[in-house]
């Protein structure tokens, strides 16, 4: 049975009848969003469990968990595709118009929703604004900044915390990581020296930084009390300090750098350029 801070928050929302029909699960890739979305489908489909609980044993539960339930539809970008196509979104919307076949409702999961282009997102917008009463939509996105503001304002956002990034750091890395976050918050003007780390480990460090800015970005998007996390106060400070557009710029800059990292020859030089560009808007 899935249990985490995130599913607890969803359970509470179900318990208080405050579960929105349009949901956005954000956070680093593979932080448990898909599992939680399937858990949610089970919970909404199951007639055996108590409210907010899935029995896990009935046919609805088992099929939902496998992703094979007739009232569950999962949309993900096709392999090697640029992203989710607008036709795929339109076909999902058409399906959403039909009544459920077996379960009390239908659940639509869109994986990598941040890989829908603007046209596809706009096609989805109206449905998210006025979702059919029998349909729930779960958008999973790691790059929240790539989701249109109009969509963001229509969905209930549930942030997912990355799994065990910190515990995976050794002692020296943990020190560097703290220095890095201090730098990211603007408390220190000296970036930590990451050049002694391998590229893989630098990538892990940058992930924590991207996550940090994303957390702050979420706070600004109003996800304030949807999670309790040790990082929340850190995120809140950064949310106060930076405009959304500046957070977006930083997330994009870091993401781009991280993507190109393996092809970077002069890591030291590249990092120093990165730090300059990161803080170029700081006075
Ligand atoms: Zn069940």
Calculate Rg over CA atoms: 20 Å
What is the overall shape?
elongated
Strand arrangement, major sheet:
2-3-4-1-5
Instruction: Write out the CATH superfamily name of the largest domain.
Output: P-loop containing nucleotide triphosphate hydrolases
CATH A-level architecture of the largest domain: 3-Layer(aba) Sandwich
Structural class: alpha/beta
List bound small molecules: zinc ion
Write the layout of secondary structure elements.
Layout: H1 5-15, E1 22-26, H2 33-45, H3 59-66, E2 72-75, H4 86-97, E3 106-110, H5 118-129, E4 135-141, H6 149-152, E5 156-159, H7 171-185, H8 199-220, H9 232-241, H10 244-260, H11 267-278
Helix pairs in contact: 2-3, 4-5, 7-8, 8-9, 8-10
The structure holds zinc ion.
Question: What features would you describe in this structure?
Answer:
With 283 residues, this protein is α/β, with parallel strands linked by helices. The protein folds into two domains: 5-159, 3-Layer(aba) Sandwich (Rossmann fold), CATH 3.40.50; 171-278, Zinc Finger, Delta Prime, domain 3. It is 48% helix and 9% strand. It has a five-stranded parallel sheet, sandwiched between helices. The longest helix has 22 residues, at 199-220. It is elongated. The chain starts with a helix and ends in a 5-residue tail after the last helix. The structure holds zinc ion.
What key attributes describe this structure?
283 residues; Rossmann fold; Zinc Finger, Delta Prime, domain 3; 2 domains; five-stranded parallel sheet; 11 helices; 5 strands; 48% helix; elongated
């Amino acid at each position: 049975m899935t249990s985490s801070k995130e599913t607890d928050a969803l359970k509470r929302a179900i318990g208080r009848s405050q579960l929105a029909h349009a949901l956005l699960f954000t956070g680093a890739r593979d932080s448990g969003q898909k599992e939680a979305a399937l858990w949610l489908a089970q919970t909404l489909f199951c007639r055996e469990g108590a409210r907010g609980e899935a029995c896990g044993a009935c046919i609805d539960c088992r099929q939902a968990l496998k992703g094979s339930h007739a009232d569950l539809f999962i949309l993900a970008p096709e392999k090697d595709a640029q992203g989710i196509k607008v036709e795929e979104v339109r076909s999902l919307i058409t399906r959403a118009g039909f009544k459920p076949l077996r379960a009390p409702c239908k659940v639509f999961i869109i994986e990598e929703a941040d890989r829908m282009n603007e046209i596809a997102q706009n096609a989805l917008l109206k449905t998210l604004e006025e979702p059919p009463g029998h349909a729930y939509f779960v958008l999973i996105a790691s790059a929240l900044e790539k989701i249109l503001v109009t969509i963001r304002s229509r969905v209930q956002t549930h942030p997912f915390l990355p799994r065990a990034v910190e515990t995976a750091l050794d002692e020296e890395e943990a020190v560097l990581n703290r220095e890095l976050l201090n730098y990211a918050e603007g408390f220190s003007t000296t970036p930590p020296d990451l050049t002694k780390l391998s590229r893989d480990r630098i990538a892990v460090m940058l992930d924590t930084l991207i996550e940090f800015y994303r957390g702050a970005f979420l706070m600004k998007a109003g996800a304030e009390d949807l999670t309790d996390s040790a990082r929340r106060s850190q995120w809140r400070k950064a949310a106060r300090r930076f405009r959304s557009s500046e957070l977006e710029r930083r997330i994009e800059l870091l993401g781009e750098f991280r993507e190109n990292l393996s092809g970077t020859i002069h890591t030291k030089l590249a990092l120093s350029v990165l730090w300059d560009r990161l803080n170029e808007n700081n006075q």
